[in-house]
Design a protein that fits this description.
Tetracycline Repressor, domain 2, Arc Repressor Mutant, subunit A, transcription regulation, DNA-binding transcription factor activity, HTH_TetR, 2 domains, transcription
Length: 211
């Protein structure tokens, strides 16, 4: 019996995962996150309930399908910063680039999706948790990059400030989205806000974790 190439198997898995996620999002929007069951999602996607839970360990994961990228994003940006670039400069540069792309990872989700999150206490709590995880991942990376001792408070303190900047800007994008603003208008507003927010950190973190 010939073996199916790994690339094709992985592609099929990704297609199934995306299919389930798409149906779940549609049902969440139509019926509300809290009211939608895993069984209903499985039926809509025409897969077994077990298949849904194999791909998504938690119901919230079906709504936040970019969560791994979200949690690791700040740490990856700092790890990949250019020679002579600080952590703050790298994160500011990457955020402004993401604004230009209307990247959903930083909050550009569309009014319907943003409303779905805002209307669900479970999703609001999960989003808060993901922000916390992102900050923790950044703290670990900063400690490694700066060679800090295990009990050094500076990396987690720096990560808290940098994470808070991104958290505030994410919330601002969500607020503007719920107000019915277009992505273009949101991008214009948030670009100005980002320069102000990151500028506030320049005095304390402008020279921190320079590569």
């Amino acid at each position: 019996m010939s073996r199916e190439p790994m690339g094709l198997r992985e592609s099929k898995k990704q297609e199934t995962r995306q299919l389930i996620s798409d149906h779940a999002t549609r049902l969440f929007i139509e019926n509300g996150f809290e009211s939608t069951t895993i069984a209903e999602i499985a039926a809509a996607a025409r897969v077994a309930k077990k298949t849904v839970t194999n791909y998504f360990a938690r119901k919230e994961d079906l709504a936040f399908d970019h969560q791994d990228e979200f949690v690791q994003g700040l740490a990856r940006t700092v790890a990949g910063r250019s020679e002579g670039e600080s952590a703050l400069a790298a994160l500011r540069r990457e955020f402004l680039a993401a604004v230009g792309l209307h990247d959903p990872v930083i909050g550009f989700s569309g009014e319907v999706f943003a409303r779905m999150i805002a209307d669900s206490p479970t999703l609001v709590a999960r989003l808060r948790d993901l922000h916390d995880q992102r900050e923790e991942a950044l703290a670990v990376l900063l400690a490694t990059e700066t060679g800090a001792a295990a009990d050094d408070i500076v990396p987690p303190a720096a990560a808290a400030q940098l994470g808070a900047a991104h958290r505030v800007l994410f919330q601002r994008i969500q607020e503007l989205t719920l107000d019915g603003r277009s992505d273009e208008r949101i991008a214009e507003t948030v670009t100005v806000s980002a320069h102000r927010v990151f500028g506030l950190l320049e005095g304390s973190l402008g020279d921190y974790a320079v590569k």
